[in-house]
Amino acid sequence: MPKISEEQRQARRDQILAAVWRCFIRKGVHGTSMEDIIRESGLSAGAVYLYFTGKQELILAAISTYMSQLRGLLQAVLMQEETLAPLPFVHEMVSAFTKHTKRQGIDLNSVILMGWSEAQTNSDVKALVTNFQTGYLDALTNVVRQWQQHKYVRSEADAEDIAKALLSFFLGSIVQEALLGGADPATLTRGIEGLLGASVPQGPPGKKEHGSLS
């Protein structure tokens, strides 16, 4: 059998995981069988089992791959050298979620909800999700502390409390998009601006922040 390159191996894994996501969207995690995944992938059973030992490993791989890819997109916003003001930050964060969850004809918002549900009874999935969300919360807390330095938010406020509120908002936007739709970046940014009005700065006076809607 001819050897295949690492790029070919990764492409084959991605092909299988895309099949997993499509099956989960149609039939749910527990309604999907290995036979469904094999058929959807267009590969032989032997080819699929060459990369994954079974459904449990596929569940973990599908969720961990999703979170790893999303982490890269979010870090581009969270770790910017010059911190975005609150409104542009909200817009860029929701844009990152949207870019990641709607691609190649697959809407991953539903898969995210299934992953959270699976985490309630699957300790391995819960560990993956908890680790991701803990790191996400820490990064948001750092952003809030930088906002406090720029006087975007009150310096006496608890940075972690604000970060938890932001985390709830961003996670809630995923739920809304999956169930109701309409949680696009422009809509949510306008909503936050309308809710809090002039109390939420878009950036330093006289300077247009990257990502601003204006």
From TrEMBL:
Pfam families per record: TetR_C_6, TetR_N
Q: Where is the HTH tetR-type domain?
A: 10-70
Q: Which domain of life is it from?
A: Bacteria
Residues the UniProt record assigns to the DNA-binding region sit at 33-52
The alphabetical list of record keywords is: DNA-binding, Repressor, Transcription, Transcription regulation
User: Any idea what this protein is called?
Assistant: TetR/AcrR family transcriptional regulator
Organism equals Brasilonema octagenarum UFV-OR1
